[in-house]
């Protein structure tokens, strides 16, 4: 395999507890507990797909995280942009229900969570640069670090792909929400059986991931079935997708080159109550007073000041009293 492309394949196979520790690349938390206690333990395990170069921080990093139902990852942030893709089972991120193939993007220094594992949930974490790991906002020093970041521009979005039947060799769908003017873009592609198609050009991005979620990809004389991961550098050109006999569904995820714009600064409240738009200074959640949040019992037209103090952020789980809101419209 040439060194301009990193491509690894792995199977999602949730075996017995005894077999978990034998899986190649497995790391996790499996305490030495008596059997009754072990049955109740929250267990997680990780499979590395693309290992970054320890001596070069500007290398890609991709791994699969799986866990038992009920496991909770506390609200946190990272120092680098990242995608997360749900590849099995279900769960909840903040107040958002997750399902297979859901794509979540979070800009660096954007808190999110908690992540609550449902039945059989597994998700890929994908980065264009290696990251030191989760920084939890319930730890005072990590929260202070987050608030001290200059020109921080938090933003996140979750979106489901669409895989349309290929009428020719391939069909391409462009995500509506996960995109910006700095190279961030997300696509889903379906390639007809035994057909060929070029993936979108990564030249305007900070790196591209291709995730095989159905069917198989033919490359270098081998067949890579779901779940397989490809990372393409911006200068490497368009990757040729060659589908196997069963066709191919693939997610195409582009990282942004840079964070656009300046950070939002808090402003004094303006405009008539019930018509303003507010943005969380911690995680960029937006509350539009005119729309309210009917799904949480907050009627359209409810001023921010009248949102109950028991309310908490659907994206990062901070309580109303824990963060500032900046009026943005």
Q: Can you walk through the features of this model?
A:
The protein has 329 residues and is mainly beta. Helix content is 6%, strand content 36%. It contains three helices and 24 strands. The protein has helices spanning 17-20, 35-40, 140-148, and strands spanning 5-9, 26-29, 44-50, 61-67, 72-73, 76-77, 82-88, 91-93, 96-98, 103-106, 115-117, 122-127, 135-136, 156-159, 170-174, 185-191, 196-198, 208-219, 222-225, 228-232, 240-254, 277-280, 286-288, 325-327. The strands form five sheets. Strands 1, 15, 16, 17, 18, 19, 20 and 21 form an eight-stranded antiparallel sheet that branches. The chain has a seven-stranded antiparallel sheet with strand order 2-3-4-12-7-10-14, with no helix packed on it. β22 and β23 (286-288) form a beta hairpin. The longest helix has 9 residues, at 140-148. The chain is globular. The N and C termini lie far apart (52 Å).
